Amino acid sequence: MDADLDALRAACDRALTGHGPVRAADLLATIPPDTAVDRYGSGGVVAELEAEVAGLLGMPAAVYLPSGTMAQQVALRVHADRRGRRTVVAHPQCHLFLHEGGALERVQGLIGRPVGDRARLLTRAELDGVAEAPAALVVELPQREIGGPLVGWDDLAAQAAWARERGAAAHLDGARLWEAAAGYGRPPAEVAALFDTVYVSFYKGIGALPGCCLAGPADVVAEVREWRGRMGGTLFGMWPGAASALTCLRRRLPLMPAYLERAREVAAAVRELPGVRVVPDPPDTPMLHLLLETTPEAFTAAVVRLAEGGLWTWQQAQTTSDPSVLKTELSVGDATLALSIEEIRSAVVALAGT
Q1: CATH number of the domain at 24-252, out of 3.30.360.10, 3.40.640.10, 3.30.420.240, 2.30.30.30?
Q2: What is the pLDDT of residues 101-136, one digit of tens each?
Q3: How far is CA 323 from CA 40, 83, 222, 245, 295, in A?
Q4: Residue 259, CB-side half-sphere exposure with 13 Å CA sphere
């Protein structure tokens, strides 16, 4: 069935989520033919991207890395080594704990300490339950695994202050900072200013080739750059991803408010449908989760019908603790904007079997 779905996806000319199906030709088109190449991450478009991201985030420096997993582990290791501490405090559903195979502990020798309820946002008050001296607090904006909600602005500032008051670093997992900034109605630099270091991704909401930047004080970034080399991340030529990131950042960062508006329009259009629940409602950022009362078999059948009509939705839905409910993640992008609200509503009706 997966091969059949792949063929259907390739034939679709419209998509419900993100910027549409990822196609090599589209990604290659984001690399200008006159791109200035780097050498082992030095010079060329890599340096141009690093300078632009540092400026956007209001940070003294930034370094380009091939993956967010590498960027965050290295940044946290630098913070921990400088403080002589090993504990990293974060929400139970953060990327570090869920999707990196225990690398924080097994590769970096750090200790992850989950704090708070896995189904809710972490609050400043919950941090008071941490008695040990942490190396760093990691805040993920938005909290993707629970639908993309944002910590309230005052509480966010208080969490960062809690870390600094205890001699710890405040680190932002800003894989979707571009979307979070739109949700707060503040420029990315104002959000980043609360933190010591910030990681931002380029292949998610920005839609570029894989890659990311880690921004912060010049001395911290210099150490991260050294660790990038030690971990095999300083490739001979890093220019394709950097050039794609620069192109897509300039194109799509200004569109984040429009993506957010469309996410809220989608929520308004589907929240009253039988068997459909929007999380969070209304969305805080240009992403949301749809909880659908349906079965995997009925969902897949609806995906196929919609794809045969030229609209791609999802390869599959995620299961939940309730066997009668499936979960999908809708990230709003160019493809979502290109559809009418009625087309989106009709697709959700079909997927929910209502």
Answers
A1: 3.40.640.10
A2: 999 999 999 999 999 999 999 999 999 999 999 999
A3: 49, 46, 49, 40, 8
A4: 31
This prediction has a pTM of 0.96
Distance (Å, whole) CA 352 – CA 326:
9
Helix (H, G, I), strand (E, B) or coil at 279: strand
Q: Return residue ranges of the chain for CATH 3.90.1150.10.
A: 2-21+255-352
Q: Where in the chain is the domain with CATH 3.40.640.10?
A: 24-252
Helix, strand or coil, per DSSP, at residue 22: coil
| Banded model confidence at residue 354, pLDDT cuts 50, 70, 90 | confident
CATH number of 2-21+255-352: 3.90.1150.10
Contact 231, 221 (CB under 8 A): no
pLDDT digits (tens, 9 = 90+) for 219-238: 999 999 999 999 999 999 99
- The DSSP line for 157-210 is HHHHHHHHHTT-EEEEEETTHHHHHHHHTS-HHHHHTTSSEEEEESSSTT--SS
Q: What's residue 22's pLDDT?
A: 87
* Two tokens, residue 26: 């589209």
Distance CA 295, CA 14 (A): 24
Percentage of residues of the chain with pLDDT beyond 90: 97
Q: Could you tell me which residues are beta bridge partners of residue 277?
A: 291
Q: Which amino acid is at 165?
A: E
